[in-house]
Design a protein that fits this description.
Oligomer: single chain
Largest sheet: 4 strands, mixed
Helix content: 10-25%
Number of helices: 1
């Protein structure tokens, strides 16, 4: 936690630094706005909980993969 910063700002900064250093990074979030962080080395997994179904959308360089996990 940093005063005057939101979590998505910190996540974005760390993901950008990791990307520039050459690390492969996966950000797991419920916030679809973070998909803007997607690069060749940064994957964003967006999870959404809906009744009886957990959907995991993995966005990586414009490709979307969908996995459904039924309870």
């Amino acid at each position: 936690e940093l005063k005057d910063y939101e979590a998505d700002d910190i996540i974005g900064t760390l993901a950008g630094q990791a990307d520039q250093t050459g690390y492969t990074t996966t950000v797991v979030t419920g916030d679809r706005d973070l998909t803007q962080l997607t690069t060749e080395h940064t994957t964003v997994a967006v999870t959404v909980l809906v009744p009886v179904l957990l959907q995991s959308l993995v966005l990586n360089t414009g490709l979307i993969y969908k996995k459904d996990f039924r309870q």
